[in-house]
């Protein structure tokens, strides 16, 4: 440790503040620790309203500091989630390996590197308003730290799977007490994340954000291309490591993910974005999903064998593949699996800060009894109820203050077939809405799936909705016997709840299959009878639990639909104002915000000369 760093650890009982940052690549975020406890964490996109905003997270930093009630000068350490110089080295070496082929992409990347990224230290200090020695752990150390130190375990194996950081694309190791050591890694350009992204690109979805759609599409397809992928694209070993045949990829030297050889191999050009989806894309999605699961399972087995640990922690972008996570869990490779909810680069801010607190400063892990250290991931801004009332009065919006009666009323509304915006407490950190900024509905309804997709979310209708269910009831609905608080595990709907689909119906093609009721909770049952499950416990989110519990009293079902509070292409709402506008611009029936009810039928239409349905691209 540097001398100046030691000086910053103030003795005499004063708190130590650590600010973690991720930025300049994908999904910027900031996180603040006070004596190792997470005070606040948030993604910059929620403030700027620019999805996956990668700019310096100045708004998120400002929010974190205000949550702690401190000025930037009070920070003891500021830590960035990766090593820019190493990343630059990778860029340079890759260019030289492929030169002159990659000149165009190299010359496009250079101005930003020379202007901003190579002088990142100065940029960060200026933006934060802080003088001191910045710390830069490696990208995979940050991911691994976010997975292990925030988990419920005091020892565990750790596996990170990602696109790429500096050089590493996958790493594994062991956490024991406050020490986390990574033992092995796989290196660029051989990457599970980039393989998946290549297929995301090829099937016409947005790179770095459309991966979710590929996973959602996979159950409609057949694994027709699995052998081709395994024979031609990659050389997969028993331990899950592999090498990609780079003649099929273009991301080292070009501006696209896949090469002409890839297009010839799979029989055509990439799908034009937004054009019609065909069985071919569904088969491609299914095939890359199957291969990804196979790699994930082999890696997990290898890590289990090598470490001998019984618990596994996962992070890195690939750990958002909740179907793959569910496979790892069901194969019983480890006794327990914990997945960092902000598994992508936003979570690097949290991991980097935890890395400094435990690994650099040597502070012990605090004991937790059966809980994790992520606090439900409710780590973002909350809004005071009195302020909301004042704001609604000022705007002359019609509302009804329910306070403690809100969960029962919201339960009644969804039981009556309404779609309700649910805004409660601190905003979630990570890509999923977990009952703080959610849109909720009745999972028993056979029409709710298409109503919510087309009238509320304005998005492709092939994607299934996810359920939130009472933690104690999870095994009544799913083949799952443990909590899944962060919606990062996919599990099968229980056999006895499934509805057999008759032969004529089975002849339906592609997306039309989604309209069949496949269980008594059809709105959350995907075509392969799976669901992406969130379990809710009363301590972590009492109001959300009370709502689902009230729904159970009314209907006998302790389970509801939970989808994120946003429309297609926009970040999840953060403030009451954003929630109200989203509620008014869609066909949502009601908004329940901190115990205050807004009914659509009682509101004056917004004075906007805008056709939102046209803007969101669907009619
Ligand atoms: Fe990453």
Query: Main beta sheet: strand number and arrangement?
Result: 9 strands, mixed
The chain-level structural class is alpha+beta
What compounds sit in this structure? fe (ii) ion
State the end-to-end CA separation: 59 Å
Point out poorly predicted stretches. Answer: 1-9
Shape: globular
The tally of strands reads 20
Strand arrangement, major sheet = 12-20-19-13-14-18-15-17-16
The overall pLDDT average reads: 90
What percent of residues are in strands?
A: 15-25%
In helices, the fraction of residues equals 25-40%
Which value, in Å, is the CA radius of gyration?
24 Å
What's the tally of helices? 22
Question: How would you portray this structure in words?
Answer:
By secondary structure, the chain is of the alpha+beta class. The strands form four sheets. The protein has a nine-stranded mixed beta sheet with strand order 12-20-19-13-14-18-15-17-16, with helices on both faces. Strands 7-6-5-10-11 form a five-stranded mixed beta sheet. The longest helix is centred in the middle third of the chain and has 29 residues, at about 280-305. The chain is globular, with a radius of gyration of 24 Å. Residues about 1-10 have low confidence and may be disordered. Fe (ii) ion binds next to α7.
């Amino acid at each position: 440790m540097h001398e100046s760093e030691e000086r910053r650890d103030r003795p005499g009982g004063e708190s130590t503040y650590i600010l973690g940052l991720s930025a300049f690549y994908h999904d910027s975020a900031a996180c603040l620790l006070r004596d190792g406890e997470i005070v606040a964490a948030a993604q910059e996109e929620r403030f700027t309203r620019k999805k996956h905003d990668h700019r310096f997270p100045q708004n998120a930093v400002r929010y974190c500091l205000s949550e702690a009630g401190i000025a930037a000068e009070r920070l003891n350490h500021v830590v960035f989630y990766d090593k820019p110089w190493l990343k630059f080295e990778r860029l340079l070496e890759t260019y030289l390996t492929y030169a002159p082929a990659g000149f165009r992409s190299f010359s496009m990347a250079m101005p930003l590197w020379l202007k901003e990224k190579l002088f990142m230290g100065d940029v960060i200090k200026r933006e934060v308003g802080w003088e001191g020695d910045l710390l830069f752990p490696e990208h995979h150390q940050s991911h691994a730290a976010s997975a292990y130190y925030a988990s419920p375990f005091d020892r565990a194996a750790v596996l990170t799977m990602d696109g790429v950081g500096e050089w590493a694309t996958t790493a594994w190791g062991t956490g024991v007490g406050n020490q986390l050591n990574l033992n092995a890694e796989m290196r660029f350009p051989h990457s599970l994340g980039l393989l998946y992204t290549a297929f995301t690109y090829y099937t016409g979805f947005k790179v770095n954000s459309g991966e979710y759609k590929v996973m959602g599409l996979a159950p409609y397809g057949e694994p027709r291309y699995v052998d081709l992928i395994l024979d031609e694209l990659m050389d997969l070993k028993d331990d899950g490591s592999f090498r990609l045949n780079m003649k099929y990829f273009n991301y080292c030297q070009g501006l696209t993910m896949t090469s002409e050889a890839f297009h010839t191999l799979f029989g055509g050009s990439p799908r034009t974005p937004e054009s019609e989806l065909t069985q071919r894309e569904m088969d491609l999605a299914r095939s890359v999903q199957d291969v990804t699961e196979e790699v994930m399972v082999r890696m997990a087995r290898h890590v289990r064998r090598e470490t001998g640990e019984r618990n596994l922690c996962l992070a890195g972008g690939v750990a958002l593949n909740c179907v793959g996570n569910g496979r790892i869990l069901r194969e019983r490779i480890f006794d327990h699996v914990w997945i960092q909810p902000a598994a992508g680069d936003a979570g690097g801010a949290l991991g980097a800060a935890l890395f400094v607190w435990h690994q650099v400063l040597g502070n012990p892990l605090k004991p937790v009894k059966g809980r994790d250290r992520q606090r439900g991931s409710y780590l973002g801004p909350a809004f005071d109820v009195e302020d909301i009332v004042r704001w609604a009065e000022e705007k002359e919006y019609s509302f009804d203050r329910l306070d403690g009666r809100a969960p029962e009323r919201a339960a009644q509304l969804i039981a009556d077939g309404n779609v309700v915006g649910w805004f409660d407490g601190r905003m979630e950190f990570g890509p999923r809405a977990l009952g703080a900024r959610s849109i909720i509905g009745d999972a028993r309804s056979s029409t709710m799936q298409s109503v919510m997709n087309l009238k509320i979310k304005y998005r492709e209708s092939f994607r299934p909705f996810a359920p939130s269910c009472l933690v104690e009831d999870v095994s009544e609905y799913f083949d799952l016997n443990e909590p899944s608080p962060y919606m990062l595990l996919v599990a099968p709907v229980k056999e006895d709840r499934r509805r057999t689909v008759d032969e004529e119906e089975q002849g339906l093609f592609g997306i039309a299959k989604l309209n069949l009721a496949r269980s008594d909770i059809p709105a959350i049952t995907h075509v392969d009878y799976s669901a992406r499950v969130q379990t809710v416990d009363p301590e972590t989110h009492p109001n959300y639990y009370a709502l689902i519990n009230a729904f159970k009293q009314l209907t006998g079902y302790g389970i509801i639909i939970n989808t994120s509070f946003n429309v297609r292409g926009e970040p999840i709402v953060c403030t009451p104002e954003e929630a109200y506008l989203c509620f008014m611009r869609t066909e949502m029936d009601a908004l329940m915000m901190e115990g205050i009810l807004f009914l659509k039928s009682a509101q004056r239409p917004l004075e906007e000369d805008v056709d939102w349905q046209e803007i969101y691209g669907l009619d």
